[in-house]
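Supplementary Note 3. Input sequence used for the single-chain structure prediction.
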Amino acid sequence: MMSKFRIDRRAALGLIGGSMLTPVVGGRVNAQTLDKVSYQTNWRAQAEHGGFYYAVANGIYKKYGIDADIRMGGPQQNPSQLMLGGAVDMIMSNSFEAIRYVEQKLPFLCIASIFQKDPQVIICHPGQGNDDFTQLKGKPILVGAAGRTSYWPFLKAKFGYSDEQIRPYTFNMAPFLADKKVCQQGFLSSEPFAIQKEGGVTPLVHLIADAGFANYNTTINISEKMVREKKDLVQRFVTASLEGWAAYMKNGPENAAANALIKKDNPDMTDDKIAYAIKVMTERGIVMSGDALKLGVGAMTDARWETFYKDMNGAGVFPAGIDFKKAYSLDFINKGIGV
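The predicted structure, written as discrete structure tokens, is reproduced below.
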């Protein structure tokens, strides 16, 4: 759920937190002290953050000498501003924000992507002739403000959509349920569930990533300073997080402790919502698909970043001439975790 943001250049120069490194032998802690690392998510606790909670609840971070502080996001928070201001070590984000760092000459980058597919979807009523993306051209679609600057330009460029199709999306299911001719944006594991449960409709769910939208999502973004000065600590945090995600997506009994932490942070989260999210993330290959099947959880590649930048440049989102390779590092990933 990418938000549009303005960056304070002065805040961006602030120090990012962290503690002294702890020696590790064979991936396990060789000292008593745990290094503190904070990670800010982009929304309220949910199964879409489950691997991080799994790594906390099942002691994976501690195994790697880390006291991990997984901080829940929400509608009034902007993770990028928190990181740029030095209030948190790392944040959950996406490819868009990483390239914006380069465009605005800010010392931050992306070092892993948990989601190989962006979970953004377009949802339609069945039986209305809206069975694929090509059939949505010219038809009314409810789109939020953030979507108009992220996935919508991609859909316009690829399928010939126009801004005249857009209707305001207010994160309320009522307009969609009241008009079978209308489609709306959503998150794969969220709105379709609510529509089924509250509206009694099993909708068509079109995953934009399956149409070629190459945005990385649920990333780990960090300062260049922390990468440079605490590379071992960063590697341990990434490895522990990826192990947590590999285990969480197996959906075994060990998930219970992680889900309990999720529900503690977010009392609105329920077991059926969590079960649905894990089910659709698995079915649609959100975590394990594409490059991750060979390179492991969290995988990224130069080719994928190049495709994303070129597509978004062609769609008018990014200007030409950005050195997109500065937006990310592959140093901490592609090690086969979860394969």
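The chain is about 35% helix and 15% strand. The first helix runs from residue 9 to 12.
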